[in-house]
Amino acid sequence: MKEAGGPEVMEYVDVDLGQPGAGEALVRHAACGLNYIDVYFRSGLYQQALPAGLGMEGAGVVEAVGPDVTHVKPGDRVAYAGRPNGAYAEARILPAKILVRLPDAIAFETAAAMMLQGLTVEYLFNRTFHLRGGETILFHAAAGGVGLIASQWARAIGVTMIGTVGSDEKGELAKAHGCTHVINYNKENFVERVREITAGKGVPVVYDSIGKDTFTGSLDCLAPLGMMVSFGSASGPVPPFGMGELASRGSLFLTRPSLMDYTAKREDLETMAAHLFSMVESGKVKIDIRQRYALKDVVQAHRELEARKTTGSSILIP
């Protein structure tokens, strides 16, 4: 893309890659991930230097490495989720530090669909607000890629998950993946339903990737001393608000986390990836790929993603 804008700004072009430099690796993709954060970069909500590629997630085989790269080698199966953008490609050169070796038991397509979303759930549940089992939580967009992983993960660790969805069909999907209670926000007031489900107590944590449309309601669902985790802006950025909004609801906590900060240290990335791989290999979390697009059809993929026509995970096939 040479400029920010709608899906049509993306161009399918050939580039000369060359050879990886110090600290870099050349990876040939078997599959690439498609995530809502890609829309933020394409539209200009998130800034990047242009011209640029898009995509933060992929899986494939290392073809070459630059000097000083020792944790991966040519022939290794790898996966990643991270910056810089550029995963929408048949092959790319990228910083080797974001690559993790992929267990043989996990297919490339599964890996490309789960790294960003699965690592997101890992840090949300284990690091941002450490769930120990027994809690009741609110998780918005429960039928999306992150939401379906979260539904299964919550069930596996004994957490009662209340999930919001935009249709009855999406509600059934979330329930089938382990979400305990579903709220169709087009038919019900989610704040009232959360208070009803929790007997008026509210929840200790809300995980909100919607942003503008749900932020205030999410605060209203929290119990005193609860944690508001705002980790996305699908409906637009949260508007400015006064800190008194947190005090008046019972000394609430608010955080705006990013996966890249949680995986910045190599040892943390490897620990988080190992935990995710273990959950998937055990069968406790199954990655539900519901949309596959040819890489050249990425414009259509973005249109369907923004129109909320997708559920579960989506991937691009080079």
TrEMBL record:
Listed name of the protein: Quinone oxidoreductase
One GO MF term: mRNA 3'-UTR AU-rich region binding
Keywords: NADP, Oxidoreductase
Alphabetized InterPro entries for the sequence: ADH-like_C, ADH-like_N, ER, GroES-like_sf, NAD(P)-bd_dom_sf, QOR-like, Quin_OxRdtase/zeta-crystal_CS
The Enoyl reductase (ER) domain, residue ranges: 5-316
Organism: Undibacterium terreum
Pfam family, one: ADH_zinc_N
CC per GO annotation: cytosol
Entry annotated with the keyword NADP: yes
The UniProt record lists the keyword Lyase: no
Database matches in SMART domains: PKS_ER
PROSITE patterns (alphabetical): QOR_ZETA_CRYSTAL
